[in-house]
Structure formats: structure tokens, C-alpha cells
Specification:
two-stranded antiparallel sheet, transferase, Glutathione S-transferase Yfyf (Class Pi), Chain A, domain 2, globular, Glutathione s transferase d10 isoform a-related, 8 helices, binds glutathione, single chain
């Protein structure tokens, strides 16, 4: 039985998974979810992922999603993201013909694991907190903006200190796939991160050296550009299990 990935075209965790499938040429049945219709909020989908989030990987009845930790903040109930880390690690471990995407060497793997943890607990977490008001009924605050700059500055420092082409070495790893998907969200919303020169250089390197993967990123970016221009109608997700829905015509 082939693998199945339930995915969202513009969801950064889904984008990272699809890039890895493509890069490793893994045969996978891709099932596109309709986010606005709330495909992921059904009880049927909850059998695959009780957290009702996208993506989910189904490897012949072995379901893999993620665990999010919700933490209260002053601005609402936000969460530590996992960013499909378990899916990426599983795919790379199971299907990797060599160990470039997720190295076996202990130190090289430790660096990738560190970057994945940083991406989940700070980088993408702060970016997502900043973006959620585009979708849900949250106010965007100065603190959210400040945290995105903190995340970018730290990522910039890691890139500068390691001095390699990619975020955990000279090869593309699963960590880069997460960072690129998160950075794309800033790119799509015209967030100027040019002063973070190492981040900018790394992002452009990825774009130039991986045109096939970039197509997946670009497809997601186009949707987010539209979302940023006009608030999407999320009434189909009401009542949402976590987030407040902006009821435009209420
Ligand atoms: N922990 C999951 C989270 C994935 C996630 O948050 N996906 C978003 C879309 S990008 C989602 O499904 N959100 C559900 C919602 O907002 O209702 C992972 O890292 O893969």
C-alpha cells in the first residue's frame, strides 16, 4: 500500500512534508484537504488525527501527525508547534537511500535536531503567532512583531556561526524544509527581512538551487498572498475547537 499524505496547499508543515517527498522521490498518494470547508474538523478525520490538524501521514494504517502544546499568552491561546517534525524524521529515516536529509552521524544529526527544535519552539512558533490574526479573530500586537524579529535575529546568528550553505551543514536537510516553509510566510506577507543578511542569502540559495521544491513553496505563497489581501471567510470552521472565528456578517 502506498503512503498517503493528507495535506494543505498553503500549510507550512504540509509544504515541508511535500518537499521531502519530492526531494526523496517517495511514491505517495496526496489527499488535498479543504481547510475552509473544515475537512480537518470532522470526526472521520479525528480518527486519523485527534488534534484535527493537517498534515497527517498514513503509512498503511500507521498514522503520524504531531503533538502541539498549547500555552496561554496575553494575546490568546497559542501553541508550541511541532511542524511535522515526526513525519519528516520518519520519512527520511525510512526512505533515505543515503543520510543527507537526516544524517546518522551523531554530531551532524544533533545539529539538525537542534535546528528542528528551534524551528518548532521559536522560529515558526513566533511566525505563526504573527500570522494567525490573518485567519482568526486575534489582534496583531507589537509583541508578536518583536518576537518575529527575535526569531529572525537568532536564526541569522546560527547561519552566520555555522558558516555553511544550509542551516545545518552544506547539504539540504529536513531542518531547511521547515525553515523555508516558515520564512515563506513572511515573504508572502511582504515582511522585510532583508536586514537579516544570512537568512536572506540562505533563502535565496534554497530558491535557486532547488527549483522543483521551490514550486511547492511558490504554490503555497500565492495562496497566502491572497489571504493577506482579503480576510478569508472561516465561518465554515465555526465553532472552532481552539481559535476564535471572525464572524464577518454576524
Ligand atoms: N502539529 C502539527 C500542526 C499542523 C498545523 O497546525 N496545521 C494547521 C494548518 S497550517 C492546521 O491544521 N490548523 C488547524 C486549524 O487552524 O483549524 C504539525 O506540526 O504538523
Amino acid at each position: 500500500m502506498p503512503l498517503t499524505l493528507y495535506y494543505l496547499t498553503d500549510g507550512p508543515p504540509s509544504v515541508a512534508c511535500r518537499m521531502l517527498l519530492k526531494a526523496m522521490k517517495i511514491d505517495c498518494n496526496l489527499v488535498k484537504m479543504d481547510f475552509l470547508k473544515g475537512d480537518h474538523l470532522t470526526e472521520e478525520y479525528a480518527k486519523k488525527n485527534p488534534q484535527k490538524e493537517i498534515p497527517v501521514l498514513d503509512d498503511d494504517g500507521f498514522y503520524l501527525s504531531e503533538r502541539n502544546k498549547y500555552v496561554p499568552t496575553g494575546a490568546g491561546l497559542f501553541k508550541y508547534k511541532c511542524f511535522s517534525t515526526a513525519i519528516l524524521q520518519y520519512l527520511a529515516d525510512k526512505y533515505g537511500k543515503n543520510d543527507t536529509f537526516y544524517p546518522k552521524d551523531i554530531k551532524a544529526r544533533a545539529i539538525v535536531n537542534h535546528r528542528l527544535a528551534f524551528s518548532a519552539t521559536k522560529y515558526y512558533r513566533y511566525i505563526e503567532d504573527y500570522l494567525l490574526p490573518l485567519f482568526y479573530d486575534y489582534e496583531r500586537t507589537e509583541l508578536m512583531l518583536k518576537k518575529v524579529h527575535v526569531a529572525l535575529a537568532v536564526f541569522n546568528t546560527y547561519l552566520e556561526r555555522l558558516g555553511t550553505k544550509y542551516s545545518a551543514g552544506d547539504n539540504l536537510t529536513i531542518a531547511d524544509l521547515q525553515f523555508v516553509s516558515g520564512t515563506m510566510c513572511l515573504d508572502a506577507t511582504d515582511f522585510d527581512f532583508s536586514k537579516y543578511s544570512h537568512v536572506t542569502k540562505w533563502y535565496n540559495t534554497f530558491k535557486n538551487e532547488n527549483p522543483e521544491l521551490w514550486k511547492i513553496v511558490e504554490e503555497a505563497k500565492e495562496i497566502l498572498v491572497m489571504v493577506a489581501k482579503e480576510e478569508p471567510d472561516l465561518s465554515g470552521l465555526y465553532p472552532h475547537p481552539v481559535h476564535p472565528i471572525r464572524l464577518v456578517n454576524a
